[in-house]
Amino acid sequence: PANGRSWSPTFAPDGTLALASDRSGDNAIWLAGRGGAPRSFLNWGAGYVFGLSWSPDGDALAFVRTVNSTITVNVVGRGGRDLATIPVSAVEVGRPAWRADGRSLVFPARDGGGWRLWRADLSRPGKPYPITSLGWIAVRTRGDILFGVKANQPGIWRLGPKPALIVAGFSARSPDEWTIFKDQVVFADGNFPNPKRLISAPISGGRQRTFADTPRAMGDMGFAIDPRSGKPIYIGKVEFDTNIELFHLARR
User: Of 23, 26, 30, 191, which one is least surrounded by beta carbons within 10 A?
Assistant: First the structure.
């Protein structure tokens, strides 16, 4: 439970859950172990934190931070130590994904030309560089294989010299509502808004099947799959209060 908003859940390989939340009144990152209550991990105060992503070994957490018009991709260790800050000269940045060796990140960013994928090596985080042509708005990895979503075009693609469409039914209107789980692509089906339905398909392409229903799921808040149980975790809206207040204006 949370008296506030939560978003961007992600699991480490050992099952540690990280998520962003404003339940304390500030935008912060929270951690939860198996069966344990969430605890505050990093409190960033001003700005907005999203796009959380664990490294393959679970020893580092990457995320996007925005403060006013400044955007960075940050990497911290399990103990909260800063490992890297990647400056991004862009209007928007999407969730980062880790390469298999845990030494570099790939992330989508939109500048004056449009969306494309960029790579940043943690050995020189101040020099990210583009690795694709324009058009890619989201990215995930499985080992060293890249999967992506195109801006304004349905589908999930396997990237390569010639991108291959593996999921035709995914809507690019919610470009982050998908993940890679083992050898499956799992994505939110926009045809089932309530309850939202998750669909899976082999990463090599093939027959789609229902993965799980997610009642009361809040759109665009993200979901993650527990690597131990294979069950999804998502942000659900249980109660929502609306207040109407009357203001009396006085001239000074």
Answer: 191
